[in-house]
Amino acid sequence: MTRGKGNNSANGKGTTLGFEAILWSAADKLRNNMDAAEYKHIVLGLIFLKYISDAFQERHDQLLKEMEQGADPEDPDEYLSENVFWVPKEARWSFLKANARQPKIGKAVDDAMVAIERDNKSLRGVLPKDYARPALDTQCIGDLIDLINGIEMIDRKDRSKDVLGDVYQYFLAQFASSEGRKGGQFYTPQCVVQILVEMLAPYKGRVFDPCCGSGGMFVQSKKFVKAHEGRRDDISVYGQESNPTTWKLAKMNLAIRGIDGNLGPEHADSFHRDLHKDLKADYILANPPFNSSDWGGERLREDVRWRFGVPPAGNANFAWVQHFIYHLAPSGIAGFVLANGSMSSNQSGEGEIRKNIIEADLVDCMVALPGQLFYSTQIPACLWFISRDRQNGRFRDRRGQTLFIDARKMGVLTDRVHRDLTPEEIARIAGVYHTWRGDVGADQYEDMPGFCRSATQEEIRKNG
Q1: How many CA atoms lie within 13 A of 452 on its CB side?
Q2: Which fold has domain 183-462?
Q3: What are the start-end ranges of the H helices in 182-243?
Q4: Numbered ranges of CATH 1.20.1260.30 in the chain
Q5: Rounded to an integer, what distance in angstroms lies between the CA atom of residue 397 and that of residue 370?
Q6: Domain 19-179 maps to which CATH number in 2.60.120.200, 1.20.1260.30, 1.25.40.10, 1.10.569.10?
Q7: Alpha carbons 344 and 340: distance in angstroms, whole number
Q8: Which of residues 253 and 278 earns the better pLDDT score?
Q9: Any residues with CB less than 8 A from the CB of 227 and at least 6 apart, and which?
Q10: 344: left (phi over 0), alpha (psi -120 to 50) or beta
Q11: What angle do the packed helices 105-119 and 36-65 form, to 10 degrees?
Q12: In 3D, which of 353, 358, 381 has the Cα closest to residue 368?
């Protein structure tokens, strides 16, 4: 099976209906009564196995041709030196495919995961290893192996990561949709990630997401660099995730894309155990949990990060904002999602913290988003853009000003409950921001009634 060429209408999740959708439909039928949250790890684990086995096989074939020059296809170093995971014989896809209909296929998959972790240090403790459990039907595992076996590489030189990576990303989105509220905890809708990436334009430097979920911000940032003809190695990736299961998903998501990211040695809470304490990032992209009330703020009243005021113990919104500011480099810029309440709430000192951040001239842009974008919540959301350097030499001097963009009427419904922004709408939002900043050409920015307005600090003050 290859990527479908016909009937590829947009599905709103950043890819096209066709190949990925057909694959998802078939995989979803095999789920039967299994919970989506549980099934997710079974399917994504097998896609991951197929990916690393394909990449290994490509390198293996190359080494076979070079044996006369002394190459050894069974030497792990020959793979590691090329950033390819070493896959021992018992973990290779060909072995699993040959045994897909055996009663002990579940144990064979578990053994394959253990072997890969044993021989690849960066994957230790990451891969799912519960395929042999009695509750999991071996017929289902065999059917999935047959299904995933149909993902063929189009171009053996480069596209293996893209094809399987796109399938992985598409499945993440579909599982988030199936899981509803729970799903949103590990997945940010791709259109929201795309807006953040297009507006921040992370060409070169350190990219940080301290609540990284399944790692979508990093994947999109690398894609952005590649699309704009930069080198993907021009950005380095740092992340942190508190949920152990989601942290594993992120590690797999980066590995399947060939992204070498530092997500810390394990999962950890960014507030109470900051794994990147000394990091000053050039770009921060994040979608923290909305209005989190159980973040343990009462234990952090004297924290060095609260430069603009102590955030309330009952809501983590402004703890996240200050955490982001703390980790920004002197010329760094951050873009992140928050609930709309963050723009107006005056409870428990939040208004004072917001005022202090605005008076410090850090708020570059605010974007009001349409409803129904998120799987986890119907709470209206907005994007904040915080910039440490409002008078960068390449840009217009925007000190004392903030750009407001109203995108609430944008987006198209993809089903009864989900809305998505179109590529044209994303380009329009990012375009007006870059024009306002002076990033592009000689175009002069102009306010557009009902869409965008550049406001002074004095105007913001007057409106509270």
Answers
A1: 20
A2: Rossmann fold (3.40.50)
A3: 190-200, 216-227
A4: 19-179
A5: 30
A6: 1.20.1260.30
A7: 8
A8: 278
A9: none
A10: alpha
A11: 60
A12: 381
**For range 45-59, the mean pLDDT:** 90
Token look-up 């998501």 returns 253
Give the model's pLDDT for residue 162: 55
Average pLDDT over all residues of the chain? 86
Q: What whole-number distance in Å separates Cα of residue 423 and Cα of residue 362?
A: 28
- The residue type found at 359 is E
Contact 158, 303 (CB under 8 A): no
Neighbours of 229 (CB within 10 A): 6
Average pLDDT over every residue of 358-365: 96
Q: What is the mean pLDDT of residues 11-21?
A: 52
Measuring CA to CA, which residue among 247, 205, 243 is closest to residue 224?
205
Q: How far apart are CA 265 and CA 315, in angstroms?
A: 28
pLDDT digits (tens, 9 = 90+) for 315-328: 999 999 999 999 99
CA distances from 104 to 24, 36, 40, 167 (A): 25, 24, 21, 27
Which residues make up the CATH 3.40.50.150 domain(s) of the chain? 183-462
Task: Note whether 5 and 17 are within 8 A (CB).
Answer: no
| 240: DSSP letter | -
Highest mean pLDDT among 243-247, 331-335, 438-442: 331-335
Check whether 9 has a pLDDT greater than 80: no
Q: Give the separation between CA 3 and CA 145, rounded to whole angstroms.
A: 18
Q: What is the pLDDT of residue 358?
A: 95
